[in-house]
UniProtKB/TrEMBL annotation:
Alphabetical keyword list: Signal
Highest taxon of source: Bacteria
Name this polypeptide is given: Uncharacterized protein
Signal sequence annotation: 1-19
Organism (species): Flagellimonas sediminis
Keyword Signal: yes
Amino acid sequence: MKRSVLLVVLFSLCLHAFATETKLMVRAKAKDAKFVGSSIGGAHIIVRNSINGEILAEGVTSGSTGNTGLIMKTPIERHSQLTNDETAGFLAVLDIAEPTFVRIEVISPINKRNAQVHASTELWLIPGKDILGDGIVVEIPGFVIDILTPNTHQYIPLESIKSTGLDLKANMVMMCGCPIEKGGVWDSEAMEVKAIVKKDGQTFGEFPLDNPSRNLFATNLKIDGAGHYQILVYAYDPKTGNTGVDTINCVVTE
């Protein structure tokens, strides 16, 4: 038994001795937008051995969202590089002794749970054969939507909104945090943004939201009675297929 344990230990030491440092750049890129970086909190990256699930590297992307002109306005040819040293990414440094099939898991954006997307891909890593430059780019579809007013579980006296209506405001950005506005690179006029409102579990109505200023979407809801209200705001871009949702509940009291 002792001899067997010794052989296992020696084998493990040999593998470690022959392990080669291998670098892998991983980036998360918002669909129809730029890279997920420090400005929105980054994307969480996990690199696993696909066979046994062992985590080989883990971290968060950091850096800038990248060059807007290059990413969004320049025709991209084969082998063109979209990134530079400032562009957001996570550099995984692994020690592997043999070709290893890995699974790259991306959770993005890490700090916005209501918009969080879990995406992944797999590939072979070869010892000493670095994958740098743009690296492995994982696409993250969607929008980040945050309802600003009314607040979650807010109690609102009916008398206070009977004549003026209830202001509904939401903030919306691309998954990288890039701005959305009328006539902008990410043009709100090409997107459908609506609120679906329920009162006491029953459909109350659907209401389009306007975009009065950068990232802000708003409308005014005519509330006719007390009750428990659920407000869901969704966005849809028919050209890209990007979608996003946020939901809050509030109470209108007599």
